[in-house]
Amino acid sequence: MAEEKVKKGKKEKIPRQPMPEQNPEVRAKNFEEVPTGQNAEAIILEAKRCMECKKPACVEGCPVEIDIPGFIKLVKEAQFTEAITKIWEKSTLPAVCGRVCPQEMQCEGRCIVGKKGDPVAIGNIERFVADYERKFKKASLPKKAASTGKKVAVVGSGPSGLTVAGDLILKGHEVTVFEAFHKPGGVLVYGIPEFRLPKEIVFSEVAGLEKMGAKVECNAVIGRTVSIDELFEEGYDAAYLGVGAGLPRFLGVEGENLIGIYSANEYLTRSNLMKAYLFPEFDTPVIRGKKVITLGAGNVAMDSARTALRLGAEKSLIVYRRSMEEVPARGAEVHHAEEEGVEFHFLTAPTKFIGDDKGRLTRMEGLKMELGEPDESGRRRPIPIKDSEFELECDLAIIAVGAGPNPLLTQATEGLELNRWGYVVADEKTGKTTKKGVWAGGDIVTGSATVILAMGAGREAANSIHDYLTWGW
Q: What is the pTM of this model?
């Protein structure tokens, strides 16, 4: 095993251990996971970079407050089973978080080691430990409190809802998770591609919750098949709304209804959850464009543009009205997209989609932009440059400019206050809504955010729900 070296009387610092990845030219043509994983030797070496701070800032940066130094210390000693048990004290989704959480802005962003070099690769270590447990199944499930006899309905099986379910099961409550789709996982399965988060990993995490006692009911559209009030009538004592923000947003430009234009929600759902990429084994229709344009530059846009390559696109373009400095996607996702051949057109805004006589998309008209003063988002506002119109050929366009709250549940629930954008109004610290016995968290409250922030909201809500079931409103 490689160890720290002594050079001229001083310890030589251990460099951050690189994550092996598929070759970009190969992976751009398959849906297998991009990072191939590290071995135990590399992970132990990475863990040794941790300074075990007395006041760990990394924990402060974690929305679910995982004992990061605690589990990393166990990894240093090759106690991987004990390490996953330590993580489970705070998180039921370590294999997911180790892959898709923006560690660079959270735990790793606070790492002291990162002040003078690369931070400890906390996400990679968490991923390894979770994968080790999934492979060898040595750890015992967390102990549950005695049954309280209370029943909780969790609506939505995304990261927020799964966190609430896991926490409340451990506190002794009976929990049923209701999912509208035919598979559990929410945005983890319909929104994030296989090459970034394999579905088997999500289903394995859900299976762990079921082993702990949670019930999962799919094909249950709460707000249509049954209302929140009817759930209370059926004997549920509390309800948590974690339905996400799955309502597509469009640009409102001319020609947006042409054949060949998708919302990113639909495009990714068809490919991810409905497995259109496995045609003809799964006969799910999806247009496979040769010249594909994706509008937007968040993680969803990167996922869409990279999916288009894997579905046979000869050219996949990201069109964004700001510059690279304002791109909201994770740096790793942008880097992977560039490696795979995605082209970036910055300071460009679409003004019109143009089609042929059969109503099929053939071109996009764009306008060059320049950046002005920062707007309410803190990013510099794009300003059109007069007489700078131009056209780009395309036969597929994907609109990835964000999503809004799906109104199916919220509009069918009396007594639930919504803000002017249609999101649920809930207490920031507890998740309590204006309707008695109902909590909400994640994207349906905040708008589109990260997996770990949704989990953090779920953690706070679960604590509040437990207090309510124990002591009253």
A: 0.93
